[in-house]
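Quick one before lunch.
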Amino acid sequence: MSKLVIVGTVAFDAIETPFGKTDKILGGAATFIGLAASQFNINSAAVSVVGGDFPQEYLDLLSNKNVDISGIEIVKEGKTFFWKGLYHNDMNSRDTLVTELNVLADFQPVVPDAYKDSKVVMLGNLHPLTQLSVLEQMSKKPELVILDTMNFWMDCALDDLHKVIKEIDVITINDEEARQLTGEYSLVVAARKIHEMGPKYVVIKKGEHGALLFNHDNVFYAPALPLEEVFDPTGAGDTFAGGFAGYLAKTDDFSFENMKKAIIYGSTLASFCVEKFGTERMENLKSQDVQKRLHQFKALTQFEIELT
Ligand code: AMP
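Model of the adenosine monophosphate complex:
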């Protein structure tokens, strides 16, 4: 089992979907990643920042899930990062209505000493220079660095994003972001171009259409579980990444074959995340629920065919 460092936002989100809307609730990339990774009973630590307005109960929620929160700085006189999103009818596309960086604007991450030798680092969605500074603090080179990012950082910090992409092993982005990053419509060509930027592994998330894993000529595709109800897709990408990173840290095997299983775990956990608003479903998720859904996943994707 490897230790896992998680970097990302711990945030307030306000969400509007065709099924309802919320005021400021718990959100943030590191929150969703941490909750997903906690399913694997590994040692993980979140590195982030919040303001004095952030409720202690939200921090307790993470530490009760065994996520070390000593790397979450509290800026008493500051305000927590706030994001507001509006989903369209198909739930696959969303508009960002508000991004208030607040305490994130001056954030200098500090990796807890006990986690500086972690084998696995999950760089969740944040300013690319903040992601880079976490890598610089590691006492020895991590064996696996996974990065997630979004169009926001491509729009406002593209050069810095390229700097950090050069240093990582796996990138997880959605199809739209892969197209924006490379200027290519074909995801196969986009993955090839991203390989040239540095990462050996490229994971392209396609929402309800599953995820693709590329390692040069090796390609793997996993569908998403067809769900009766999708309530709020917020955090699905981060939950996927948290499941992917958590499984790899737990099994200590960073091969392409094992990454296929990590993708299945990531997709399975993401399928729970979207069933309720915000973090609600992930907060109460039991390992029996996960196992049951993994069985459904296997049944859904397995078939016998005679090949000549
Ligand atoms: P996802 O739905 O997985 O793409 O991630 C949603 C989460 O990302 C929300 O909980 C937001 O708080 C967080 N988020 C939104 N915009 C940003 C941003 N520019 N940087 C970091 N985190 C963000």
